[in-house]
Specification:
heterodimer, A: mainly alpha, two-stranded antiparallel sheet, 29 helices, 8 strands, B: mainly alpha, 0% strand
Chain lengths: 830, 114
């Protein structure tokens, strides 16, 4: 399809803007939409549903347009030899000295980039609304819109309480009454629409500045939605926490952005053309130049920025030369010097050519590489905040204060997915050292969150830590070079995590509590929720028949562990840590998920009151569960080609060798498809998951062992985990308290210093004004009154002349005239 | 006294005008009757008119060449019109004054004195 580059931006752009339109309409007319704003939900759902349809059309258009690539991609695992598909351009033969150099290495991924609208231009800085569409964008669009549509439908049922006045039993007013407030049904959907719009904008963004804008929009939307029950102290705290913790990460991101922009001079991902039609290189092609076989190297401008001192020295040198030349010319012909001033053009040309010749040398010496690493780590900092990685993971578990559909959206398709997505999108820019940082962050997060999830009793909290842990998985996968594995897990995880959250919402809806120790035996009461949740648990655990078929998690988790093994073979020291983290995480995942499921759905009811009132949710709530359960089960199957789609967006070029850490070597991701690695990975993943599952069954399913015994045995560890590794307390002590103390000091300084100063100033001003008043009253007013008094008395004394006697007046006129005549005559006579 | 021995010229008319003017002024200054005052005004105006007409007469100023053309006669016509209008207004005032005070003594009209 030739015109794909016009069709795709149109389709996806429309899918992106529909939620914005819905948001705008609900903002303006929300409360007037039907009874209590019920139509707002139809509008929002319709908008995101249409977005989903458009995304599917775009997906089909993409798939149909590349049959040849699809054919080449469809059996990537089978391709053991490398370089078989040497590109026609023959770049392969020119020898990438990295071994591997598979058939993808020299073909850049198919991508369409362009600009819709230029917001502003300030010198070199150009801010645009643009798009960068590749297979990843399209896959994300389909995933996000599908999950968001399901969640919208679910929310129509879940939020129905908000259609009427709500009595919030968790908020007690000062008079002891519970808060009673009007329902906010339409506002919920208004924010949901904005949330979807922001996330889609983030996915489609064509430049990093636009990414940042939508990044913050996603943040503010999550703030609104987490704090939806704003009257609850815990909700408003959680919203603040989410927002502030994210700011910490964004600070790093801004540094990364500045490093990139200052050295590369562009925000755009893809190549484009400037106003004069000259092609401009985007970030990706500057960092991985086609001329360099898409291998990562610091671009010339970055090297130059880093070697600024050397550049200055060269320019100074040429100035010196020119000055000497000038002196000589002056000595030769002092009367008629050829020129007086330095020849700037010549100096510039000479220095430029010398600098250009030196760049390669400087690059060898390592100039610019640090800048690249800093840019990468900076961008990753933003992702750490948004994707709740250690040490900024603390906000995500609190984010469950929002309504459950929001939790589902935040935890699967939007907020946290944004961070992983950005790491995937920015993959070409990350140097091996940055990837190592990412991998370690992921590994730590993965273990940390999984251990906390083992002991949590709040059903949503277990799921929240499970999300953090799975995000750690994705980061780990990306960090060990498994680009496709990480993105694949992002997509499969989105399906089963949204499913799990919606199921937990259904349970909470029925039980009106979050505490698992009060549930139990709910399977008979709510079978659909129970069985769909079982599918979700199996999917996240990675259940399947080894080497044959499995649920979606089976495929994505296998590919991550395979990549970890592949990485371990090249880097034994780091790799071992990552491998054990991945395997241990898999075991713990299985354990805590089934602990959750058993505690909720099996066993004797622990609280009869709750059990008796429990009931299956309405159709509009369980229908999305079934849809999501189907997807969570099958989305990983090779038939659906998710991995093939992702392979089409794989960044060109290899990660290769570290420069700062020379021993660090990244394997090609295709190496992990080798049969021996793959088999190992499958066995490890399966056995660890099975181990966790069996342990959970022994403790909670058939209850041969009593978890309380273990709890007493390891009391210290248990308390440590139950208190979430004391992270909240640590941050409270290290950051929150000092900050509040500082704030108090500054407040008292304000009160005692600044306020007092201003009060005194005010007092002085008042005194001065009093003096001014006296001057006004006595001096100015006095002068005016005196003049008026004089005029008055003059008038009084002249009154008597006005006798009212006509004849007297005539006489006076005559006398006056005669007197004047005489006077004039005498005067002129002189 | 060469006026008496000269042929009639501008000077003679001016003497007549001056006499009329002074008579009018004296009349205004001495009469207590409002109608008398009005008559005085007529005399003053017409004294001035005589001067205007005399000074613009072609026949009278032929020798001296100091005439003011026909302008004087025009102004005299204006003065006549003005005098008529003034007389009408003044008589109306007088009649009203009489209605209110049963007298036309101008000395009694001193309500606006200071």
């Amino acid at each position: 399809m030739e015109d794909l580059h016009t069709v795709l931006p149109f389709l996806l752009g429309l899918a992106w803007l529909l939620p914005l339109a819905s948001f705008t309409l609900i903002v303006l007319f929300g409360p007037r939409m039907g009874a209590h704003g019920v139509a707002a939900s139809y509008l929002a759902t319709g908008a995101i549903g249409s977005g989903f349809l458009l995304s599917v059309v775009a997906l089909l258009a993409w798939g149909l347009s590349s049959p040849d690539r699809n054919a080449a991609m469809s059996q990537p695992a089978a391709l053991e030899g490398h370089g078989e598909h040497a590109d026609a351009s023959g770049l392969d033969q020119q020898g990438l000295d990295h071994h591997g150099g598979g058939h993808h290495a020299v073909t850049p991924p198919r991508a369409y980039s362009g600009e819709w609208y230029t917001l502003g231009r300030f010198g070199k800085l150009k801010i645009t609304i643009g798009y960068y569409i590749d297979a990843l964008t399209i896959g994300m669009f389909a995933m996000v819109t599908l999950i968001a549509t399901c969640i919208h439908f679910y929310a129509i049922g879940y939020m129905h309480d908000e259609l009427h006045d709500v009595t919030d039993h968790e908020v007690t007013l000062s008079d002891g009454q519970h808060l009673r407030r009007p329902g906010r049904f339409h506002r919920f959907f208004q924010y949901m629409s904005l949330f979807c719009f922001s996330m889609l904008g983030l996915v489609i963004a064509g430049n990093i500045a636009m990414v940042f804008v939508f990044w913050e929009l996603v943040g503010i939307c999550s703030y609104f939605l987490i704090g939806f029950y704003i009257e609850r102290k815990s909700a408003s705290n959680a919203a603040n926490k989410a927002f502030i913790v994210n700011r910490v990460g964004d600070f790093g991101m801004i540094i990364g952005l500045m490093a990139l922009f200052a050295s590369l001079g562009t925000f755009a991902f893809g190549d484009g053309v400037d106003d004069k039609g000259k092609p401009t290189a985007g970030i990706f092609s500057q960092v991985r130049a086609p001329a360099n076989h898409y291998a990562l190297q610091a671009p010339a401008s970055m090297v130059r920025a880093a070697a600024a001192a050397r550049v200055r020295a060269i320019v100074a040198d040429h100035f010196q030369e020119d000055a000497e030349e000038l002196d000589e010319a002056h000595l030769a012909a002092p009367a008629k010097p050829a020129r007086k001033r330095p020849d700037f053009d010549k100096i510039q040309a000479a220095s430029e050519s010398e600098i250009a010749a030196e760049i390669a040398d400087w690059r060898e010496q390592g100039y610019g590489y640090w800048l690249l690493v800093i840019a990468g780590v900076g961008i990753f900092c933003g992702c750490v905040g948004k994707s709740a990685q250690f040490p900024l993971h603390v906000w995500l578990p609190d984010a469950m204060e929002g309504p459950t559909p929001v939790s589902a959206l935040v935890h699967s398709a939007t907020m946290v997915a944004a961070g992983v997505y950005l790491v995937g999108r920015f993959y070409p820019v990350f140097a091996p050292e940055v990837l190592l940082v990412i991998a370690y962050t992921g590994a730590i997060t993965l273990l940390l969150a999984a251990t906390i999830a083992l002991t949590a009793t709040d059903i949503k909290r277990v799921l929240a830590y499970s999300t953090v842990s799975q995000l750690g998985y994705m980061m780990l996968a990306l960090g060990v070079g498994g680009w496709a594995a990480g993105m694949f897990h992002l997509i499969t995880h989105a399906f089963f995590k949204s499913l799990l959250f919606l199921c937990s919402g259904s349970v909470i809806h029925a039980c009106h509590t979050n505490e698992m120790p009060k549930m139990g035996g709910l399977l008979k009461k709510m079978p659909i929720t129970g069985y769909t949740m079982l599918v979700g648990c199996l999917a996240i655990m990675g259940a399947g028949v080894p080497f044959l078929i499995g649920l979606s998690g089976y495929y994505s988790k296998d590919s991550i562990i395979a990549q970890a093994i592949s990485f371990q073979q090249r880097n034994p020291a780091h790799g071992t840590v990552f491998f054990y983290a991945a395997a241990g995480g898999a075991a713990m995942t299985a354990f805590y998920m089934f602990r959750l499921w058993y505690m909720t759905f099996l066993g004797p009811p622990r609280d009869h009151h709750i059990h008796e009132h429990a009931h299956e949710s309405p159709t509009i709530m369980y229908a999305p569960l079934i849809v999501l359960a189907v997807f969570a089960a099958v989305i990983g199957w090779p038939v659906f080609g998710v991995t093939d789609l992702l392979e089409q967006a794989r960044p060109a070029g290899e990660t290769g060798q570290g420069v700062l850490l020379a021993s660090l070597a990244y394997p090609n991701e295709h190496d992990s498809h080798a049969p021996n690695i793959h088999m190992q990975a499958t066995l490890y993943a399966f056995s660890t998951a099975l181990g966790g599952f069996l342990l959970a069954t022994v403790f909670y399913g058939v209850r041969w062992l009593n978890p309380n015994d273990v709890r007493q045995q390891f009391g210290a560890v248990y308390r440590f985990l139950l208190n979430k590794w004391y992270f909240d307390e640590l941050y409270d002590a290290v950051f929150v308290r000092p900050a509040r103390g500082l704030a108090k000091v500054i407040a008292s300084f304000d009160r005692l210093g600044i306020d007092r100063l201003i009060d005194n100033l005010a007092r002085w001003t008042r005194g001065l004004a009093g003096i001014d008043d006296l001057i006004d009253r006595y001096l100015v007013d006095g002068a005016v009154n005196l003049t008026a008094g004089w005029t008055y008395s003059l008038g009084r004394s002249l009154r008597s002349v006005q006798t009212g006697k006509l004849r007297q007046y005539v006489m006076l006129i005559v006398i006056g005239t005669v007197a004047l005549t005489i006077l004039i005559n005498f005067a002129s006579a002189k | 006294m060469d006026l008496l021995s000269q042929s009639v010229g501008v000077s003679h008319f001016m003497v007549v005008g001056a006499i009329m003017f002074v008579s009018g002024v004296v009349c205004m200054a001495t009469k207590r009757n409002a109608l008398g005052v009005l008559m005085g005004i007529e005399l003053v105006l017409n004294g001035a008119n005589v001067n205007f007409v005399a000074l613009s007469s072609e026949f009278l100023t032929k020798d001296t060449g100091g005439g003011i053309g026909l302008d004087g006669q025009l102004i005299a016509l204006f003065v006549i019109v003005l005098a008529a209008a003034e007389a009408a207004v003044a008589l109306a005032i007088v009649l009203n004054f009489y209605n209110n005070h049963a007298t036309i003594d101008v000395d009694r009209a001193d309500e606006l004195k200071g």
